[in-house]
Amino acid sequence: MLKRIANLSLDLDNQWSYMKTHGDPGWESFPSYLDLVVPRILKMLDERDLCITFFLVGQDAALEKNAKVLASIADAGHEIGNHSFHHEPWLHLYSEEQVHAEFEEAELAIEKATGCRTDMFRGPGFSLSPTVLRVLKDRNYRFDASTMPTYLGPLARAYYLRTAKLEGEEREKRAQLFGTWKTGLQPIKPYRWQLEAGELLELPVTTFPVLKFPFHLSYVLYLSTFSSALASFYFRSALRACRLARFGPSLLLHPLDFLSHEDVQNLDFFPGMKIPLIKKLQRVGHYLDLYQQAFDVKAMGDYALDLTQSEKPPLSKRKL
Questions:
Q1: Which positions ≥6 away from 181 have C-beta within 8 Å?
Q2: Contact status, residue 234 vs residue 240, Cβ threshold 8 Å
Q3: How much is the average pLDDT of 177-182?
Q4: Domains and CATH numbers, the chain
Q5: What CA–CA distance (Å, rounded) separates 283 from 260?
Q6: DSSP codes, 225-241
């Protein structure tokens, strides 16, 4: 029996971007772990013959110190997407002029560093707005991947902000970080946004069908801190539910899935960072193996191409 096509992507959030969102001092010097984590990620993907989509932050691409390691991603054959320039999860507050400038700056920096012109986008912190969608369409992007339909966004935000030192305007900017409870009403299957200028494909980060609980690897790793067996069972169940719902999921990775407090000490507020590195990498490898056993895993661009060429059944449409 043929496996359904699924996709795999990674948001290459850097150390400074986590610190910035969390309100930690020192992010302005752009501390980075890219030289450490990117080779580690590429090795694990190469061992499994996986080609995925990396969403890069333009600010990282603009820094000469990151040019070689970012180029290595494209050189390894992986797809390159746009994860904004400044990595601000309050992108939905930007004006149309600001969004255009944000995209142009990111596109130019990413192309210079990797040789790849980006036409795939995921907003930082799943930040999205009608303005962002209009700009994506205007700039001829193939798809957006900024939605993650779950009811747990407010809980994740409350946990995140509880550990942060933010007040006033800075706290208000993050008022919709990870979405509201209404985000859980969004579709989990791919669909098309209906815009004035035409349609735009949306590829949501897949959540557990019906339940709408996340199962991206950072969440599964968090569950594994309570019980590795429970986390594995949950992940298998989510994949089985997607097969029963007759679609291939979009699975998301983050750099911190491949790092521990042994590598970066000041990001311990992020769930799963206290898992010993060897155990963490073993678990990530196990989850990726399960994913490949269940689906034919491709990069998002190839997935989108297959999806739009077949459209059986036709993709649903959603108005702004």
A1: 151, 153, 154
A2: no
A3: 78
A4: 5-319 (3.20.20.370)
A5: 13
A6: TT-HHHHHHHHHHHHHH
Q: Two tokens at 77?
A: 């054959």
- On the 0-12 / 13-18 / 19+ scale of CB atoms within 10 A, 15 is buried
Give the number of residues written for the chain.
Answer: 320
Amino acid at 58: G
Q: Nearest CA to 173 among 270, 83, 91? A: 91
pTM: 0.95
Structure tokens at 232: 């594995």
Give me the residues paired with residue 54 across strands.
10, 80
Specify the amino acid at residue 59.
Q
Separation in Å, CA 97 to CA 101, 105, 126, 130: 6, 12, 20, 13
pLDDT for position 195 = 97
Phi, psi of 118 (to 5 degrees): -85, 140
The CA–CA distances, whole Å, from 241 to 80, 213, 246, 279 equal: 29, 12, 9, 27
Q: What are the beta bridge partners of residue 194?
A: 199, 319
Nearest to 307, CA basis, from 296, 318, 320: 296
Tens of pLDDT along 38-55?
A: 999 999 999 999 999 999
First-to-last C-alpha distance (Å) of the chain: 38
Between CA 106 and CA 56 the distance in angstroms is 9
